Amino acid sequence: MKPISFLFVALSTIFAVNSKLNAQIFEVDTSFHIGFGFDGLVRAIDIQNDGKIIAVGDFNSYDGHPSPRIVRINTNGSFDNTFSSPIVLSGVPQFLGNIKIQPNGQILISGKGIYPIDSTLLLPGTVFYATFSRLNSNGSFDFTFSQNAFNSTYGAIGILPGGVTSENFILQNDGSILFGMDDIGIVKLLNNGTSVITTCNVPQIFTRFSPPTLLSLPFSKMLVNDNLDILFFGRFDTLSSTCYACDHRHNQVAFTSGLCLKTSTHALDTAVYTTLRLGANQFLVGGSFSNYDGNVAYQIAKIDNNGAFNTSFALSSHLNCTAVICLEQAENRILLGAVNGYYSGMPLNNISVFNLDGTIDSISSVSLTPNAIVTAIKANTTGVVYAAGDFLSFNGLSYPRICKLMKKSILPGGVGIDAQKRELIIEHSFESVNITYPYSDIKELAVYDMGGRLIAKMKNIPKNRKTNIELKHGFYIFKIIASDENVIMRKIGH
Asked: Which range is least confidently modeled, 258-262, 392-396, 488-492?
């Protein structure tokens, strides 16, 4: 059959046949200039009210500027020289794994080896390090907070030997802080660091860390539900039996008196790495587990306010991965960082996008291609998303370990989404299409069906070369990574 011109015939056909195929993707914001980026793993990020980003992890520098384990980045990606890392490298393993910015701009951090503690409070001759502290907005330590949190009465709070760590804390709306730690349980601190209870003793809480394994993230996570109960996920030993990654629920009325009453227990078979509040009375938990209270829940589960498993979330029965590492909600989408992931047999990238009901957003998912693990995702209120981890490139562009993403629209018929709105020259024959890109050589051409499954992939196609791809009739996503650094996505009907 003689080829027909796509631009005049097929385009009008797509508009007429299926005008509801509008979609959005996340595209790399190339105005975010990070230079050399990070020289080590980024574990967590948070966003200030002014849009600046604070990142923590295992790194020593950002864009060539020394900044051990913590850095602040300007909105354009440049190093913020008004913020100085307070971490002094001491030769012991040191990293930061969690960060939360308080409304007044002060910064809560936790990890390992933050700074040495006067061992006379505990065991003379033993080196102890703070695992939890607060910084002022310029990066200096707020030792007023720390001295209250680490006083002689509660000297063990946030102070552990060099070989143990805890990253688990929650900043609550009233300014108080819940801090969970091995062998201690959960401690509630006021905004000035003062402990308001002895401790909330949970049966033997464990966290595990073995650098530099990327999956060795904390095995204990907390979230506070809408009844102000604490849902605590971790590994608990009770008497002679081990409850691996159970959650214990504590009402804060009892908690503040130090009683810490367990009101329910829900069983998982392995670890929880991340939690996300979806809205009123609903939460997501992600990790390496495969069931929740006996229900199939492959590495992710939706739970209700009382901790019960919610069966309405499709992803629980379709996901298959080593572990879900991080979760974030960006408007009406869920972004998920996973290791070795599949969705109903379809390979996933290191970051994927899902609808709120747990079905995959295949168009957005295939548009994101970091070359290694994503360990942190953070969205602001305008839909801007930052992804961080151990990748060196994102969508074929050099972005060492952090990247800024912007939402872009795909219009019916493949109207341009890239900056120059460059068109593909596409010709249809009976069971194939011919693709020509006239602007530069093509590094990679990939074709996906509407379920996100890879149909064809080709590399190193010269400029203006006509490339034939066999396709059945239907709709497809074409993705081109061009040698001129453009990433072009098109939704095309054949």
From this structure: 258-262
Q: At which of 382, 409, 436 does a domain end?
A: 409
Contacts of 435 (CB under 8 A, 6+ apart): 424, 425, 426, 445, 466, 467, 469, 478
Q: Are strands 397-398 and 393-394 parallel, antiparallel or unpaired?
A: antiparallel
- Higher pLDDT, residue 13 or 294: 294
Same domain, 219 and 92: yes
Residue 334: closest CA among 311, 313, 312: 313
Q: Are residues 371 and 443 in the same domain?
A: no
Longest dimension (CA), the chain: 87
304-330 pLDDT, tens per residue?
A: 887 788 999 989 999 999 989 999 999
Domain that holds residue 487: 4-21+414-493
Q: Examine the domain organization and report whether 357 and 462 are in the same domain.
A: no
DSSP one-letter code for 38 = B
| Torsion angle defined by CA atoms of residues 95, 101, 107 and 111, in that order, rounded to the nearest 10 degrees | -20
Which residue do the tokens 């796509």 mark? 6
Count of domains forming the chain:
2
In angstroms, the CA 486 to CA 479 distance is 10
Could you tell me the two tokens for 321? 């991965």
The predicted model scores a pTM of: 0.76
Half-sphere exposure of 119 (CA within 13 A, CB side): 11
Determine the Cα–Cα distance for residues 92 and 261; give it in Å rounded to an integer: 38
347 with 441, same domain: the answer is no
| 228/340 same-domain check | yes
281 conformational bin, left if phi > 0, alpha if psi -120 to 50, beta if neither:
left
